[in-house]
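A reminder from the course coordinator: this example appears on the midterm review sheet, so study it carefully.

Given structure:
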């Protein structure tokens, strides 16, 4: 899948520091929401994967470049696409943009998630059906 999934969110007071700027760790939350909604849009709800296939995805690494600050009341667009897939992990290329006439890129990230057995948290293969749909 080469096209990026996009999710829109609004920045609320709770997302910001005392200066009205989004606290850096909250970018990770936005990125997580976009990955979760991307999976849902492909027909894979994480709660169902856990319950029915004993499978969870967990972040094992994240590289984030903060380019510009997001601020209180900004409307943001978070993108997510699978850049690479292996037998037991996915690498997502992600970005956060300020919605508007120029769509300023605020953040870019590469996030690797591992497929884990939900009971033991040991690595396991990603089911073929999921790999075929996502990549």
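Designed residues:
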């Amino acid at each position: 899948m080469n096209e990026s999934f996009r999710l829109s969110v609004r920045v609320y007071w709770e997302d910001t520091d005392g200066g009205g700027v989004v606290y850096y760790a909250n970018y990770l939350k936005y990125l997580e929401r976009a990955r979760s909604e991307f999976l849902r849009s492909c027909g894979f709800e994480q709660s169902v994967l856990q319950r029915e296939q004993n499978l969870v995805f967990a972040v094992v690494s994240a590289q984030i470049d903060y380019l510009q600050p997001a601020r209180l009341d900004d409307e943001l667009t978070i993108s997510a696409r699978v850049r690479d897939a292996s037998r037991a992990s996915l690498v997502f290329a992600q970005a956060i943009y300020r919605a508007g006439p120029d769509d300023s890129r605020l953040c870019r990230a590469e996030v690797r998630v591992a497929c884990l057995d939900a009971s033991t948290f040991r690595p396991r293969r990603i089911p073929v059906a999921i790999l075929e749909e996502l990549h």
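The chain has one domain: 5-134. The beta strands are 5-10, 55-66, 75-85, 89-98, 105-117.
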